[in-house]
């Protein structure tokens, strides 16, 4: 079983109940085809970076799940024919480092960024000898 993340944006015109029905439909597609859902993160309605199909806002949902590879084609097919989904993205986590990140994200933990090299700006007074 591979580790995946599905992010999709629903139309902002949906009521909370309608949005919940669409999320449940997508969860059902995953579970019926042999996938296991680790977590569902509903991020709420946010402003989009640019207009999509005349919408300036969208309701973001992220689903973390494990599934056989064959499930993805069926999942993508179902998401594409769902008119209420205006955009979606499926991400596959492959190596150990990515899977560790997936496990943290699916539990709602934030990722700690890699150590960044910080350079302090040299002041002109520091350059004088």
TrEMBL record:
Spell out the Pfam families in the cross-references.
Ribosomal_S6
Basic and acidic residues composition-biased segments: 114-129
Key word RNA-binding present in the record? Answer: yes
- What domain of life does the UniProt record list for this protein's source? Bacteria
Please give the InterPro entries that the UniProt record associates with this protein: Ribosomal_bS6, Ribosomal_bS6_sf, Ribosomal_S6_plastid/chlpt, Transl_elong_EF1B/ribsomal_bS6
Ribonucleoprotein: present as a keyword of the record? yes
What are the alphabetically sorted keywords of the record?
Ribonucleoprotein, Ribosomal protein, RNA-binding, rRNA-binding
Region Disordered: start and end of each range? Answer: 109-129
Q: Which Gene3D superfamilies match?
A: 3.30.70.60
An example molecular function term from Gene Ontology annotations: structural constituent of ribosome
The UniProt family comment states: Belongs to the bacterial ribosomal protein bS6 family.
PANTHER family reported for this sequence: MITOCHONDRIAL 28S RIBOSOMAL PROTEIN S6 (PTHR21011), SMALL RIBOSOMAL SUBUNIT PROTEIN BS6M (PTHR21011:SF1)
Instruction: Write down what this protein is called.
Output: Small ribosomal subunit protein bS6
Source organism per UniProt: Campylobacter hyointestinalis subsp. hyointestinalis
């Amino acid at each position: 079983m591979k580790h995946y993340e599905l992010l999709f944006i629903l139309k902002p015109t949906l009521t909370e109940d309608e949005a919940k029905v669409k999320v449940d439909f997508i969860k059902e597609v995953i579970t019926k085809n042999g996938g296991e859902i680790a977590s569902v993160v509903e991020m709420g309605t946010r402003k989009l970076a640019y207009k999509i199909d005349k919408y300036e806002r969208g309701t973001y949902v992220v689903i973390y799940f494990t599934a056989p590879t064959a499930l993805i084609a069926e999942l993508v097919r179902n998401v594409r024919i769902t008119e209420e989904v205006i955009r979606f993205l499926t991400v596959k986590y492959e190596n150990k480092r990515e899977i560790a990140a997936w496990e943290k994200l699916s539990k709602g933990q934030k990722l700690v960024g890699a150590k960044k090299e910080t350079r302090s700006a040299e002041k002109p007074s520091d350059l004088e000898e």
